[in-house]
Amino acid sequence: MILLPQSTKFLGIYMDENLRWSEHVVNLNRKLSRACYSLGILANYSTTDVKRTVYLANFEPSSRFVIIAWGGGRANPNTPNKDGNSALHISTSHIETNKTKIFACILVQYNAKMDSQNNNNHTPLHIAVYEDKEYLVEVLLESGESTNIPDASGITPMHRASLDRFRYPRIFTRLCAYQIL
């Protein structure tokens, strides 16, 4: 009896026996976490040029290779899954805090639509507000996502934050400040 591996690395991409990318995502997260740590250490002690060099050496090749490998250079970060979720919706909901911010920035760099809505009419900002991810709310707002897009129930991210302002005071304050600008 020949035992087959559950996952394998081929041309720099990890895939499992069902051709899923989960193993690759785990390994990419590890790699980007190490790069985040390096940038965090350098943040207070180096010039912008040094930080840019570290970024270009660690983040850029990984993200560019993944985009090319996943879509032959034509990968579309806005392609929805069966629930209408884009890559940004999924990353907002499932990836850990510091990794989500980095991944969201990479998706923005590759033209992810900030205001895309899933089958429940939730934008990534709706999800970030519902899940109390303040750091991601900031990235999405800075990238141009609107606070006033209603979901299927007619609730906007701003409305949700105001209803839960005692539960999520920092998100409510951030959204209010953004509304004023």
UniProtKB/TrEMBL annotation:
PROSITE patterns: ANK_REP_REGION, ANK_REPEAT. ANK repeats lie at residues 120-152. InterPro entries: Ankyrin_rpt, Ankyrin_rpt-contain_sf. The keyword Repeat applies. This is Uncharacterized protein. Keywords: ANK repeat, Repeat. PANTHER family: ANKYRIN REPEAT AND PROTEIN KINASE DOMAIN-CONTAINING PROTEIN (PTHR24198), ANKYRIN REPEAT-CONTAINING PROTEIN-RELATED (PTHR24198:SF165). SMART domains: ANK. It comes from the Eukaryota.
